[in-house]
Structures are given as C-alpha cells and as structure tokens.
Specification:
By secondary structure, the protein is of the alpha+beta class. Helix content is 34%, strand content 21%. It has 16 helices and 23 strands. The strands form seven sheets. Strands 17-18-16-15-21-22-23 form a seven-stranded mixed sheet. Strands 3-2-1-5-14-13 form a six-stranded mixed sheet, sandwiched between helices. A hairpin with a 3-residue loop joins strand 1 and strand 2. Helix 9 crosses helix 14 and helix 12 packs across helix 13. The longest helix has 27 residues. The protein is globular.
C-alpha cells in the first residue's frame, strides 16, 4: 500500500519535490535553485532544460532522503510558477527560446496597443484579467513574432505552448514519446486566452494575439481521477506513479490553506506576494484592480473562482539587497538587520522593478527609495524593505474589501518568508488584523499533494483535508490606528513617486 503523496513545486527561483503523509506532514523534500537570466532591463528568462533537470534531481533527492521508491507514492501533483511561458518543438523536445518569466516586461508595447484599440475590455470581460505584461498571451505572441521560424513552426504543429506545469508534465509523462500536452483550469486562466465562463480557449482572444489554437494544451480539472498520465519508468521516479493534479502555485497554496469556503482568503509570501479570496462558484468581476481567476476544480465538480491581488516584487526585493547591493549575505539576515533600528527612519522603498501589479497595473512605474536623509543606514533600508512587503499587501487587501464587501477577521499566511517573525508582526501592524501561520508553511506543495491525493482517494473529501490544518503562530496588531494611518499615507505618497518613470512609447 502507498502511504504518501508527492508534489513537484516548480517556483520562480527554485524547484522542490516534497512528500507528505495522510496527516499533511512533510516526510521528505529536496530543493535546488536555477539561474535567473536577465538579458536586458525588464527582461527575465529561465532555461526550460535546466528547470526540467532540477525537477528530476529534486524528485530523486527527496525519494533518496526519505528512503522511498515510486511504489510508496499513491499519486503526484504539480504546482508551478504561473504565466512563465515555454514554446517548444514536440518532435524534438527542444525549446524554441528561453522561458519568458512572469516578471518580464518586454510585452508592454503589445499590451498598450491592445488597450488603445479597445481590446482591453474584451480581455477583462472574458478572461477576468487586464492586458498586462504579467500574463502568458503576450509572451507567446512575442516568441512567434521575434524568434526566427517560430510562427511557421506553430502553424504546422511543430511549436507548442505551455506554462511551466505543461512543460514538466509533458516531459514526466513521456516527452517526445507520447507525453501528455495538458494544463489545468487554474493555469489556463492566467493566459488572457481562456474564457472563464466556457472553461475553454476563446477564439476571439486567440485572434487578438495571433496565436494558433493548435499550439495550446488540452485543459483538464486541477484534480483528475482520469489521470493526466503515468510517470515514465525510465524517469526520475524509476517507476510509474499517477500524475493527476495540476494547479498554479497560488491556487495550490489556497488549497493547502484549505480555503474551501467562500470568503476565506490566504496570502503567500514568495518571490512576489499573492492574496486569493475564494468567491465560490461565482465569477466576480473586479472594479478595484484585482484579477478574477479560477481557484480550483476538483474532478467533475463545478469550478471554484477567486479574486486575486498579485504583487510582483516582495521576496525578490530581499534578494536584491543580497545579490545586487550586497548588504546582507543571506536572505534570512534581513530580519536581524531590520531589528537594529526602531523604525524605518522616515524612508519608504517601493520595489516596482517590474512595474506595479495589483491594484495599480502600471507598467510605467519603476522602483524608488524616498525620504532619505544622512541619518539613514542599511538597517532602515532593510526595515523599509520588510514594510514594503506589508504595505503592498495592504493595497491588495483594501481592494479586495471594496470588491467583495468582506472584511477579513484574520489573514492566513504561508510561504518561505513567513518564518520571519518581524515581517509577520509588521504585517499585522500595517493591516490591523491578526496574522496566522500554519504548522506547514509551504502550503503550495501541500495543496498540489492534496489535489493529487483527492484524485486517487488518498483523502476522501475536503473536510478530511481541512482537519489537517493547524495553526503554528499568530501575531496581533500592536500599532495604534493613528500610526497605521500615518504610515500608509506616506506609503501612498511613495507610490506616486514611482509613476510615469518609463515612457512606454519609447521603451
């Protein structure tokens, strides 16, 4: 009998494979980083082959560390960095170009032209998304228009598209030897090509981007008892395991946080920050700068939708302090450095490195530090970086309240940065609501495991998964209402300073 479920968690900066037992406890994991390729300002790429290699290495590493084999796994799920776009030749398995990452802004002209032509409202009404560089559709168009031979290859079926989930699943289930070319509803809903109401690719949206339908993967439920495929015996599992779950990373975290009831929300702290609010079976359009997206779909049940607030740069701002400025040696060092000062010393850091996402959607914005005086030191910058993560979350939460009318009583948090107690306390202070972290903070991988286990009966229902959730720590707000209002007013002034920095007509 198989006692565990595995999950591939392919993220923006690293890949991990995690194994969980029936109580949702971590049994084993292995994690490896991959290179960030930055060809020019605003361009962010990954090597799809390197990502595949890291995926295989982490699967083998986790199984080895847990002294397990494929036979010990009842099922495997996939969760992935969303929107990151790969186009490859299905006959050779070779990518036509590097993966264009969700943070990449090279498609800003494409998005601007769509908006000017009045197509933005079509995309919003059908796909629930604004025309933004964030999503996959423009990235596919860029590859077709700028890589020699790509469009002709696509039209004859020799160039297919997938976000990272599709690329990994295709390879794990056979690749050029019959690999499954599929995605799920959550990842499809991040492309600007998917109709939320029909749950299918939309010909009008495809026409806006000039993308042949032949390129696109089949769309399946996020948890599917009709397996996507079996892992190859010759692959990293060295045996066959049902691969039967696929969710974008933020939707997976929502499942991992067992936010199964409309009105429940979670916030994930990773490379960026992502807050999702379950809206049930209702498609709720946003009037406050949020995204409407598919949250998950289990088997043949109706899909569950969500409102989402996406922030591009949070954890990656800490990496910037480490890698570009060199003021810390390790990401974890930021907490001690931030605690060398009592407050931010009057400075605010808006890390709009990829423009501003929700709720602003301003690709003309760029990062800035404001309020500097000779008094300030690197401790103040470290604290301002942590506060920037929290203020961007406040922006999103305020928009979510406007759209939904739901005032959160507590915010569930997850992701690697939640181990930073100072950050979590600041988040409670800036929001004015309690913040609670679960015992298993890496809920992205757990959510993919839950979806896979549900497909094979490892978990019988949502209530059984909900029973596993346990709080680890809770932070209560300490700031006064005046302190909170004053800080947020200064943050909004800082936001204004980032706008109109890039002339999009000349970029």
């Amino acid at each position: 009998m198989s006692h565990y479920v595995g999950a591939v968690d392919q993220g923006t900066t690293s890949t991990r494979f995690m194994i969980f037992d029936h109580e949702g406890r971590e049994v084993a994991r292995h994690q490896l980083e991959h290179a960030q390729i930055l060809p020019r300002a605003g361009w962010v790429e990954h090597n799809p082959i390197e990502i595949l290699e890291r995926t295989c290495e982490t699967i083998e590493g986790a199984l080895t560390s847990g002294n397990l084999t494929a036979q010990d796994l009842a099922a495997v799920g996939i969760t992935n960095q969303r929107e990151t776009t790969v186009v490859w030749n299905p006959k050779t398995g070779e990518p036509l170009y590097n993966a264009i990452v969700w943070q990449d802004t090279r498609t800003d002209r494409i998005m601007r032209k769509l908006e000017q032509a009045g197509s933005g409202d079509i995309i919003r009404s059908k796909a629930g998304l604004p025309p933004a560089t964030y999503f996959s559709g423009g990235k596919i168009q860029w590859i077709l228009d700028n890589v020699d031979g790509a469009r002709a290859a696509a039209e004859r079926g020799e160039a297919i598209f997938g976000n990272i989930d599709t690329w990994v699943i295709w390879n794990l289930t056979g690749g050029i030897n019959g690999g499954a070319h599929i995605t799920d509803v959550t990842n499809a809903s991040r492309t600007m090509l998917f109709n939320l109401a029909t749950l299918d690719w939309d010909d009008q949206l495809l026409g806006l981007f000039g993308i042949p339908r032949l390129m696109l993967p089949a769309v399946r439920p996020s948890s599917d008892s009709n397996f996507y495929g079996m892992t190859r015996v010759s692959g990293p599992f060295k045996g066959e395991v049902p691969l039967c779950a696929d969710l974008g990373d933020q939707q997976a975290a929502t499942v991992g946080q067992v936010c199964f009831t409309p009105g429940e929300a979670k916030n994930t702290y990773g490379t960026g920050n992502f807050m999702l609010l379950n809206t049930g079976t209702s498609i709720v359009p946003s009037n406050a700068g949020l995204l409407t997206t598919v949250c998950y779909q289990f088997a043949d049940q109706q899909p569950i939708y969500a409102l989402e607030g996406s922030v591009a740069v949070t954890g990656s701002a800490v990496q910037w302090l480490r890698d570009q400025l060199g003021i810390i040696k390790h990401a974890a060092d930021i907490e001690a450095l931030a605690n060398t000062v009592a407050d931010n010393g009057g400075i605010y850091f808006v890390p709009a490195f990829s423009g501003l996402y929700a709720p602003y959607w301003r690709s003309d914005a760029r990062g800035c530090v404001v309020g500097l005086s000779r008094f300030n030191d690197k401790g103040h910058l470290a604290r301002a970086t942590l506060e920037a993560i929290c203020y961007q979350t406040r922006d999103v939460l305020d928009a979510m309240v406007k759209d939904s009318g739901v005032n959160l009583e507590v915010l569930k948090v997850d992701g690697g940065a939640t181990v930073n107690d100072t950050l979590m306390q600041l988040q409670a202070d800036i929001l004015g609501v309690p913040v609670v972290r679960p015992v298993v903070p890496e809920t992205t991988a757990l959510g993919a495991a839950y979806a896979a286990g549900l497909a094979v009966g490892f978990w019988r229902n949502e209530e059984e998964m909900r029973h596993n959730w346990q709080a680890d720590k809770q932070w209560e707000p300490r700031w006064s209402a005046d302190q909170r209002a004053t800080g947020y007013a200064a943050w909004q002034k800082a936001i204004e300073r980032t706008l109109n920095w890039v002339d999009l007509d000349k970029s």
